[in-house]
């Protein structure tokens, strides 16, 4: 069972990234759930979502001890780095987070996601770069499921963006 | 049958439309806003009426009118708005009108907050408005059930001529999970010869809740109670897991049941004999089954996002045969499986009385 | 033998419970006659309110719903929106419409809800035995304004036709009276008009009918009629406050 938290500023594609993973899991016929933070917390600028992917019926959809956390800004790093479960994975956006994890019981991967996205010419694919890192580091969902999910999640008129998204994903894989 | 990834609030809305919904009357409040938004987007294109009322008071009375006119109708709100609807709900129950009322519960009392909670349990199952009446209260535990219990809700409402409440919460409303809608498209509507839709070629019909002559009013009340007894006999629904050998049975509905399920799994991994009992109908409450499960040497642990409301019904059912404990969070906080597990350990180690 | 008086088909045979001299009976009759003359009984759904006319569902010989206090316009909206070809009317008192149900009436009017509202203004709460209403006149003594209504304590009586006439939604607003037979005749015409407006799908129509409550006013029925004419009409001028059909020249 994968229990993932994705967190960052609103507008960084945090919720969409969570939906992408959830959707991909659904395509693979796994049990999946996605739950967003909502309300004042979100308006304060940060947002996060919980994603659970399991073989069997899912209990709590609210992730409290993540097996993986993907954090895209410094406040989210501070909040979720300590929460990752033993043996878990922390992927963070080192373009915006100038910190290092002190933990030795989890795996930590720093990815300059914004820098890579800028190199690709579209700041909005930073989230996909981090997804690439996740796909390489774990087998939570398959890449071809993500490609299928993209077609479903993106509206038809944005389908020309799929190659760029897949490119971002590939760049993310290099960081392990 | 394709799976669709949907928010609970949207799945519920889609199911309602597929159930032949003809009118939705609502008023904005978080965390149920996806329901009116979905209705406004889709219902008018699919043969129904969407109207934003000036208040929840108005909305529920519009429901009264449309239900009396014989169509499938629904409203949704969240806790403070549901309080305002209580007057109308009492009238609807008294006039025996079928409708579905959705409460996506948030934390309270007062204005409270917009985070998920279960503090409206008493209001929903004990009668939040004035007088002796009951709602059929359904508690979905996942997004699929948000859809399925809405469909069932319309059927039960029509079958019993009784308002049905879907008692959901902020998590179930906001979360996304895969949902499958059956594709047969059949709407199981019943004949409503009592509806006020124009007395053409028949005696006039009256939709009314006034009952001013005591002996007649008592007879009508007894008839109503008879109906409630029948509902109790026929419509109780629940789910249980691992209850047979359990030393501790967790009892929870909705989101709490999800947390309890995770706690049960953690406990079983540790070799602790923990089971789960999930009421699906909160009224009628599955009291008989709980009574059967009660025995010496077994404890119950109610898991709730309230000060402890459902626990009273568990205690009534168990009737002193087994101890009943509470694991809860308040204020929009969601209990964690770890919290619940810790309480289970306390019980098993005799650290609680 | 020639029939000179006949009960409208749109009224039942049920004896009415109103006090002697009460004008509710007359107004019921006017509504019944309007329904008959337009031959709409079989498609009409009435909504009774809470007040002395709470039993109106026993008297109107058409489908009826009984609404909670003040909520009749919302109930009527609920019906009309799902049965747009039906004819829907509410029958409300002044406490019901102008106090507890102010939001419902204002918003139904603002939406231009295609319903007919019969608003009976008797300047008092009749059913609950004579408390001050939002339409009670300045100086008027009631159970809850025993020394007379004062501006300082209770503010001003509300003029519903004028108030609703500030909105774009209403298609027809008229104030009529029941204090003599000539005015009763005019009231009947206005009520019929309010149903016609609905039939033509022109929108919200309300007729405010000034009426008496001799028992709670503490007067004989005849004196009450005089009091209405002398005190209510100056504050609540009769007339048509909105008529969208007038603009169209018919
Ligand atoms: C919520 C609620 N509050 C109060 C009442 C009590 N009540 C019944 S009738 C009435 C007054 C009605 O007065 P009005 O609308 O002027 O009609 P009238 O009786 O004068 O015809 C009141 C306050 C009620 N039924 N419901």
Descriptive labels:
heterotrimer; A: alpha/beta; 6-stranded mixed β-sheet; 6 strands; about 40% helix; B: about 350 residues; alpha/beta; Rossmann fold; 12 helices
Number of domains of chain C: 1
Q: What best-fitting shape of chain C do the alpha-carbon axes yield? A: globular
Radius of gyration of chain C: 17 Å
- H-E string of chain B: EHEHEHEHEHEHEHEEHEEHEEHEHEH
Attached small molecules: thiamine diphosphate
Sequence stretches where pLDDT stays below 50 over 5 or more residues of chain C: none
Please describe the biggest sheet of chain C, giving its number of strands, its sense, and whether it closes into a barrel.
Answer: 7 strands, mixed
Number of helices of chain B: 12
Q: Please report the first level of CATH classification, the CATH class of the largest domain in chain B.
A: Alpha Beta
The largest beta-sheet of chain B arranges its strands as 3-2-4-5-7-6-13
What is the number of domains of chain B?
2
Silhouette of chain B: globular
Number of helices of chain C: 11
Strand-residue proportion of chain B: 15-25%
What's the topology here?
The complex is a heterotrimer of chains A (176), B (353) and C (250).
Chain A: E1 2-9, H1 14-27, E2 31-36, H2 40-43, E3 46-54, E4 68-71, H3 74-80, E5 89-93, E6 107-111, H4 113-119, H5 126-137, H6 143-153, H7 162-173
Parallel strand pairs in A: 1-4, 4-5, 5-6
Antiparallel strand pairs in A: 1-3, 2-3
Chain B: E1 4-7, H1 8-18, E2 23-26, H2 34-42, E3 49-52, H3 56-68, E4 73-77, H4 79-94, E5 99-105, H5 121-125, E6 136-138, H6 143-160, E7 163-169, H7 170-174, E8 176-179, E9 206-207, H8 214-234, E10 238-241, E11 248-251, H9 254-269, E12 274-279, E13 281-283, H10 287-293, E14 299-304, H11 310-318, E15 324-328, H12 337-348
Helix pairs in contact in B: 1-2, 1-6, 3-4, 9-12, 10-11
Chain C: H1 24-38, E1 44-48, H2 56-59, E2 63-66, H3 72-82, E3 87-93, H4 94-100, H5 102-110, E4 116-121, H6 151-154, H7 160-164, E5 170-177, H8 181-199, E6 204-210, H9 214-217, H10 221-235, E7 239-243, H11 244-247
Parallel strand pairs in C: 1-2, 1-3, 3-4, 4-6, 5-6
Antiparallel strand pairs in C: 5-7
Helix pairs in contact in C: 1-8, 4-5
Bound molecules: thiamine diphosphate.
The site of thiamine diphosphate (TPP) has 16 residues of chain C, from α4.
């Amino acid at each position: 069972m994968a229990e993932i938290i994705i967190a960052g500023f609103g507008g960084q594609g945090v919720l969409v990234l969570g939906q992408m993973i959830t959707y991909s899991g659904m395509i693979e016929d796994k049990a999946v759930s996605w739950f967003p933070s909502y309300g004042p917390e979100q308006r304060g600028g940060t947002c996060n979502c919980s994603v659970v992917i399991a073989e069997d019926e899912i209990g709590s959809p609210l992730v409290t001890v993540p097996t993986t956390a993907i954090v895209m800004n410094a406040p989210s790093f501070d909040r979720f780095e300590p929460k990752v479960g033993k043996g878990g994975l922390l992927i963070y956006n080192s373009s915006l987070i100038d910190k290092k994890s002190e933990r030795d019981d989890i795996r930590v991967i720093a990815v300059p996601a914004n820098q890579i996205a800028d190199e690709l010419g579209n700041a909005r694919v930073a989230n996909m770069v981090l997804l690439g890192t996740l796909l390489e580091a774990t087998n939570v969902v398959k890449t071809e499921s993500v490609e299928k999910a993209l077609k479903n999640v993106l509206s038809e008129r944005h389908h020309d963006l799929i190659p760029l998204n897949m490119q971002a994903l590939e760049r993310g894989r290099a960081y392990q | 049958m394709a799976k669709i990834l949907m928010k609970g609030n949207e799945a519920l809305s889609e199911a309602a439309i597929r159930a032949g919904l003809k009118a939705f009357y609502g008023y904005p409040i978080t965390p149920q806003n996806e329901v009116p938004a979905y209705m406004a987007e889709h219902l008018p294109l699919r043969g129904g009426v969407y109207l934003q009322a000036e208040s929840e008071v108005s909305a529920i009375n519009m429901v009264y009118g449309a239900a009396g006119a014989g169509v499938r109708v629904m409203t949704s709100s969240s806790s403070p708005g549901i309080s305002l609807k209580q007057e109308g709900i009492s009238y609807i129950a008294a006039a025996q009108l079928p409708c579905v009322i959705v409460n996506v519960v948030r934390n309270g009392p007062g204005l409270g907050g917009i985070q998920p909670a279960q503090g409206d349990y008493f209001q929903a199952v004990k009668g939040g408005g004035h007088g002796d009446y009951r709602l059929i209260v359904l508690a979905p535990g996942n997004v699929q059930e948000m859809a399925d219990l809405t469909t069932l809700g319309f059927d039960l409402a029509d079958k019993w001529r009784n308002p049905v409440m879907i008692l959901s919460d902020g998590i179930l409303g906001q979360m996304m999970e895969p949902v499958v809608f059956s594709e047969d498209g059949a709407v199981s509507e019943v004949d409503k010869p009592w509806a006020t839709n124009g007395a053409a070629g028949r005696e006039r019909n009256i939709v009314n809740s006034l009952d001013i002559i005591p002996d007649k009013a008592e007879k009508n009340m007894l008839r109503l109670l008879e109906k409630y007894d029948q509902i109790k006999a026929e419509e109780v629904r629940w789910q249980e897991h691992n209850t047979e050998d359990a030393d501790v049975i967790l009892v929870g509905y909705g989101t709490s049941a999800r947390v309890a399920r995770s706690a049960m799994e953690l406990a079983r991994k540790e070799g602790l004999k923990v089971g789960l009992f999930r009421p699906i109908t909160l009224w009628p409450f599955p009291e008989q089954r709980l009574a059967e499960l009660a025995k010496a040497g077994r404890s119950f642990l109610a898991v709730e996002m309230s000060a402890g409301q459902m626990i009273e019904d568990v205690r009534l059912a168990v009737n002193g045969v087994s101890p009943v404990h509470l694991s809860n969070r308040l204020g929009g906080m969601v209990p964690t499986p770890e919290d619940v597990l810790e309480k289970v350990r306390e019980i098993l180690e005799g650290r609680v009385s | 033998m020639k029939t000179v008086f006949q009960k409208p088909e749109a009224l039942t045979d049920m004896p009415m419970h109103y006090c002697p001299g009460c004008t509710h009976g007359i107004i019921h009759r006017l509504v019944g006659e309007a329904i008959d003359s337009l031959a709409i009984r079989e498609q009409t759904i009435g909504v009774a309110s809470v007040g002395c006319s709470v039993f109106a569902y026993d008297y109107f010989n058409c489908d009826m719903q009984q609404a909670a206090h003040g909520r009749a316009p919302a109930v009527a909206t609920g019906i009309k929106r799902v049965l747009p070809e039906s004819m829907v009317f509410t029958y409300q008192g002044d406490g019901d419409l102008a106090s507890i149900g102010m939001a419902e009436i204002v918003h139904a009017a603002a939406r231009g809800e295609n319903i007919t509202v019969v608003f009976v203004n008797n300047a008092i709460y009749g059913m609950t035995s004579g408390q001050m209403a939002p339409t009670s006149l300045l100086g008027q003594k009631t159970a809850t304004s025993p020394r007379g209504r004062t501006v300082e304590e209770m503010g001003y009586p509300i003029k519903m036709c004028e108030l609703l006439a500030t909105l774009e939604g209403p298609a027809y607003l008229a104030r009529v009276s029941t204090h003599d037979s000539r005015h009763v005749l005019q009231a009947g015409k206005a009520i019929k008009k309010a149903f016609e407006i609905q039939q033509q799908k022109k929108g919200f129509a309300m007729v405010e009918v000034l009426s008496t409550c001799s028992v709670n006013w503490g007067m004989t029925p005849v004196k009450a009629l005089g009091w209405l004419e002398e005190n209510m009409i100056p504050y609540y001028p009769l007339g048509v406050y909105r008529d969208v059909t007038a603009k169209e020249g018919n």
